[in-house]
Structure formats: C-alpha cells, structure tokens
Amino acid sequence: MGVKVTTKWLGDIRFESTNPSGHNLFIDAGEESGGKGEGYRPKALMLSGLAGCSGIDVAALIKKMKLDVANFTIDIDANLTEEHPKYYDKVLMSFHFYGDNLNEKKLQRAVDLSVEKYCGVMEMFQQFAKVTIETHFHNKSV
Length: 142
What we know:
By secondary structure, this protein is α+β, with helices and mostly antiparallel strands. 31% of the residues lie in helices and 29% in strands.
C-alpha cells in the first residue's frame, strides 16, 4: 500500500494520529459534539489537507518560476450537507497573493497547474464536491 497512519484512542472522543512526517496530531470533537475541543476536527482537517497540498504545489512553482511573491494565503469556505453522513458538497478555495511586483499571469498558471494537474487532494475533493477556485492579487505598491 505505501502510506500508514495509526490513530490511537486517548479516551472520551480524543485521538492521537501518526503521520509519515513524524509529527503527530490530536483529533477531538467540539463541546457541542461531546468532545473537549482539544484537537483538530476531522472534516476541517480535510480542508487543511486540501489547502496544504495545493499550497505546496504553488510554493514549489513560485520557486521554480523565480516569481516575486511576498506572501500568499489560501482561504477555504466549505458547505457541509445537513443530512448524515455530512460531507462537503461545495468548496470555495481563494488564493491571495501579496507583493510589490506580482506576475499575475504566471501565478495564475501556478494555481491552474496545481488544481488541474498536481494536487491529488484536489482530485479527491472533485469526486464529491463542486470546487470553485478564485485567485486574488494584492499589489502593495497599488
């Protein structure tokens, strides 16, 4: 198979999960669901995984293309269905690039390459959700 993750129950509804990176993380539900909020929420972790996967792609392409970017963020707004099992059926992913000399065309190309070719998590999300991508450029000098 390849990737192995072990998730251990810590009592109540809290878990510790391993990661191939060697960094473990804690998973817990919010108080409204009987947890203590002492860890990441599982479905929200999926959104972080999506942003992280695409973010790594874009950051690597920024470096490869030698683009001048001071910073960038990825905001995700996801809609959760109301019926069980609840899942994300709509996802809005917004890339925000900041800098004095942004090459908008090449940055858009980096986003497109991640979305259409490189990000495996994006491919998985597109199997069950309508994913909308927005790209915003914030030129500091303007």
